[in-house]
């Protein structure tokens, strides 16, 4: 890890990007693999907090055992309003679970420690409006989380945040199944008449769906809508 330059990280990140397609979850998986390699950690995972229920949903996991995955989904940082409030007050903070109230829960003694996980760190992901939309969780296979590791962790999390945001948008877009279907066809370059013929619906119905799509996605033109669909993996 020592001597790993930003140029090297960029090259590695590009190689992962080239090996994955535009689907945000697969891109996150690639970024997690990169982070695991750079940080020399045992495991790393991404949790998203959908606005619909405000509870963590594990969307990508590299290296953790199934029982530990269950811990993330039930009781990790962000699972309570009090913890979320703490993260909002310090969105760039890094939280070691061995020094938090999480260490006192049954999940640590019954699941994490028996599985060999002794030290864990969590970093919130913050949107431009200041709201927290997700968390990166990492198991560190070393007795201390030194300053160099912290620096590398922040760098790789910042890179992960872009693809994590795509997953968040995809999960919270509020699009109906039909709207998603039409969005994919717009992405593929079909016109309204072609979409109507493909889906056996009227052109007026297609136009209505397109209007709804543009309003929900905040796009200003058909080309903008198509680009939005590609960016967020629809």
Automatic annotation (TrEMBL):
One Pfam family it belongs to: GerE
Top-level taxon of the source organism: Bacteria
GO molecular-function terms, A-Z: DNA binding
Keyword Magnesium attached: no
InterPro entries in the cross-refs: Sig_transdc_resp-reg_C-effctor, Tscrpt_reg_LuxR_C, WH-like_DNA-bd_sf
Record domain HTH luxR-type: where: 168-233
PANTHER family membership: DNA-BINDING TRANSCRIPTIONAL ACTIVATOR DEVR_DOSR (PTHR44688)
Protein name: HTH luxR-type domain-containing protein
